[in-house]
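Limitations

Structures in this collection are predictions, not experimental determinations, and the ligand pose is part of the prediction. Treat each record accordingly. The example that follows, with S-adenosyl-L-homocysteine as the small molecule, is included so readers can see exactly what is and is not provided: the inputs are given verbatim, and the output is the predicted complex.
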Amino acid sequence: MTDANPILSGASGAGPMPIPGHIDPVPVPRPGLVEGVTPREDGRVDLMGLPKKRIADLFETAGLDLKAAKLRAKQVYHWIYHRGVTEFEAMTDIAKTMRPWLTERFVIGRPEIVEAQHSSDGTRKWLLRTADAHDFEMVFIPDADRGTLCVSSQVGCTLNCRFCHTGTMRLVRNLTVGEIVGQVMLARDALGEWPKGRMDFAFGDGVDGAETDEDEGGYSSDGRLLTNIVMMGMGEPLYNFDNVRDALKLVMDGDGLALSKRRITLSTSGVIPQMARCGEEIGVNLAVSLHAVTKDVRDEIVPINKKYGIEDLLQACADYPGASNARRITFEYVMLKDKNDSDEDARELVRLLKQFNLPAKVNLIPFNPWPGAQYECSTPERIKSFSDIVFKGGISAPVRTPRGRDIDAACGQLKTAAEKKSRAELERLYAEKEVALG
Ligand code: SAH
Ligand code: SF4
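Predicted complex:
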């Protein structure tokens, strides 16, 4: 492909991300790039992450007439997201003569797998790389009744919760839609979970060289390994709202990855201004990283609290569209020894959740250690006592079993190139991020 190709125009959204509060660089449109798509060295355009309409627009720009562009986009979309196909040659209802035309101009990418690790408890972690060489991670957690994929929304995180390893990463960039949905696609690849068989489009065009002789294809709901998605990997998903929303739309689309919104949970540290939009525009389950019940402690361990305080956060939860007793909001609470784990804290937690009349459940997460962390996990007795108080207050408060600790895949352990920073370096980094937060 050359720059003369008409497909290649627009600005890229894939540069390193300024920490909020810093002066944003003026975005300079880079010729030869398609907006929101990480550019590739070979100049072809990666369709991964694009909705049907944009695929059709690209096909039209590349020379198809409107009707053909729409039809091809519908077929290609289905093959990409519903069937997991990565080669145009495998799209059997598209004319054989058409396939090289597509291959010359487009690709169906996946994030590159740099390393795949398997925990002794069955948890799997993948170190992934974007086309422009940024590393991030995703984790798959199999359970008896479900399989949960923990998806990243950013490379690193601009926030700096003191107990979270991801918060110690300096470099941050938003993941693109393709890089977010690409994680789910990769997991399906690795788990061997794409439906096999024929496309059953009414408009299949076998007449001009397409093949239509495969078996019926479709997902079967039983035996599915990947049943749930949690936006709980690296990054703050509500600081990358548009891309997360667009990626989850592809995941929820019946003609796409076809996963129910009831099986998707988005976790936020409390970016209040985006919470209502999350309910309205995405409609997934909400989890909130509360972790403390007093201003002093939450200011210290979840510094975004200085900007968006506990009471306002709980009010935003009370207003969250779609929350009900049938769809409760999960409050995550990391158990830190002598920091937030007293009986008094537990009673205050119950009081607050009741004051705001929240349809709530509490998830108690034993702190997962990482090199350089300044906290310890609460004792099992303390966690039990805390949990009992919340349960007696009428709110479910199970203790989450840490998974994948042996491969640093547990909550808050994700961090690529895990170099150990000195305490002084960490303090400097936290100070920088806090200034940026404003
Ligand atoms: N940024 C989002 C989602 C990713 S973190 C958020 O903060 O909600 C997923 C969960 O793991 C959050 O509740 C986070 O606070 C928690 N967590 C972070 N570090 C942890 C650690 N070291 N041990 C246990 N839980 C941790
Ligand atoms: Fe970012 Fe979430 Fe980690 Fe806080 S807990 S630093 S918001 S990833």
